[in-house]
Amino acid sequence: MKTLIIDEKFDNKKLNTILLSVFPSLSVNTIYKALRKKDIKLNGKRIGQDVILHVGDVIDVYIADCFLYPKQNWKIVYEDDFILVIDKPSGLEVTGENSLTSLLSNTTSFSVYPCHRLDRNTSGIVLFAKSQEALSILLDKFKTSEISKHYICHVLGIPNKKQQTLTSYLFKDAKKSMVYILDSPKKGYRKIITSYKIIEEFDNDTCLLDITLHTGRTHQIRAHLAHIGFPIIGDGKYGKNEINKQFQEKSQQLCSYKMKFNFVKDAGILNYLNHMEFKIEYHF
């Protein structure tokens, strides 16, 4: 049994329309069969026909999960009334057509708003707000660095320094979908700060790095590490193709594995998140 509470997104819409939107794999025939059998309840009462629903209505759907849920390749890390934390697989965009955001919108009974992005081929934690109020707060907290994002990546080479904070300058060429890095300021380039720490070294002249982003620019980690001579294995844009072929990797070995909330200022309805941490096992 699945329970849906109707919000503004589905206000004044028909039951069939809502069910088909929330459960894309569900067929119209299955819905009508459930209605005939009165396997759907509206506010605790069984119904046998398509009806118009309003904000606050509670729908209980007694249809087997195999009919309700399409095959999902993402995982829910955490969810409450205000936020949704998803473990995104490599190969899936965060926004756009057929993206994680659109898939979530089609499989949930509430609206979701991405608070940040990951590159399509970067896996790991993505934070969503479930209301405009929560989104506004979280965007502000990212802007003031009160939410930190941590990554793990597999790179070619082993840095001499076990840990280091790098400061450079990045220019984004939107037409080429590329970024370029300089060590000195230049007009059109924006300051970037990236910290790394070696986690594990391997005999094949590669290592795992724990990365902390202090700024969040397009392709920052990938381009910054390549700039200092340690490209991410599998990165077809900033890495080395011969190395990617050697390791038989077609997707960059980069995962957003941890997110921490360290609020300095009031976070309103999200104050409860302060000092919380979400962490996953990296997958690449």
Condensed summary:
Helix content is 20%, strand content 33%. It has helices at 15-22, 28-36, 65-68, 100-107, 132-143, 220-227, 241-247; strands at residues 2-5, 13-14, 40-42, 45-47, 52-53, 58-61, 75-79, 83-88, 113-114, 123-129, 147-156, 163-173, 178-182, 190-201, 206-213, 254-261, 277-279.
Shape: elongated
The percent of residues in helical segments reads 10-25%
- Compute the CA-based radius of gyration: 22 Å
Please describe the biggest sheet, giving its number of strands, its sense, and whether it closes into a barrel. Answer: 11 strands, mixed
Provide the number of structural domains: 3
CATH architecture of the largest domain, please? Answer: 2-Layer Sandwich
Q: Quote the beta fraction.
A: 25-35%
User: CA-to-CA gap between the ends?
Assistant: 35 Å
CATH class of the largest domain: Alpha Beta
CATH superfamily of the largest domain: Pseudouridine synthase
Tally of DSSP β-strands: 17
Uncertain runs are none
Overall structural class, as computed from helix and strand content, comes to alpha+beta
Helix/strand order: EEHHEEEEHEEHEEHEEEEEHHEE
Mean pLDDT reading: 92
Kindly identify the CATH topology of the largest domain. Pseudouridine synthase
Helix count from the secondary structure assignment: 7
